[in-house]
Amino acid sequence: xxxxxxxxxxxxxxxxxxxxxxxxxxxxxxxxxxxxxxxxxxxxxxxxxxxxxxxxxxxxxxxxxxxxxxxxxxxxxxxxxxxxxxxxxxxxxxxxxxxxxxxxxxxxxxxxxxxxxxxxxxxxxxxxxxxxxxxxxxxxxxxxxxxxxxxxxxxxxxxxxxxxxxxxxxxxxxxxxxxxxxxxxxxxxxxxxxxxxxxxxxxxxxxxxxxxxxxxxxxxxxxxxxxxxxxxxxxxxxxxxxxxxxxxxx
Length: 250
Prior knowledge:
Blueprint: H1 3-8, H2 14-79, H3 86-109, H4 112-117, H5 119-131, E1 137-142, H6 150-171, E2 175-183, E3 186-193, H7 207-218, E4 222-227, E5 233-240, H8 245-249
Helix pairs in contact: 2-3, 5-6, 6-7
């Protein structure tokens, strides 16, 4: 096509323009659907990887409990007969401490307490294990009366575990508040401490906050962080949730 041909080419009619615009919109819609599908696939992959990680943690927890825990218990049983010996008695106390530490680590790796007694009991246990030794008190407002899906309870347990560890390590707080309630179309978790806070605009996420962000994204949950220097820290997590048929039947 020559330059003269381009100059003499007739402009598009209004119908042709509308048809071209409609074609572009259809292509845009197709691309958006593809992007949405790929995003959904990535979320499902992240969730499967997270659940696989939990299965590996459960296996490691069983190994700790059944292997190392039993060996330590056997040693403690033998040492218990020699408590009149000062040196052996001291070793016996160290072994008992190691047994308790192994049990705690096993429960953190695979929280059977949540499965047996529910999420509320699991949160209270986390408070005793993580907050209390650091002098941080737990305020818990738990208003959910129904049994949640096991994956959802484990999701919240891991979020709380990471948040409590962060508070103990960095916040210099005296109180940690947990509010978990049912909301329209989902579950709302509010976490708040009275610590020193930080500038969220200039601070890079550490391992704890990044893990919380990644988990919420994998479960298609909303995550909002509210903090400022000297103002404490608040996290808001809204998880879309509808009780599964399997759980209802149970």
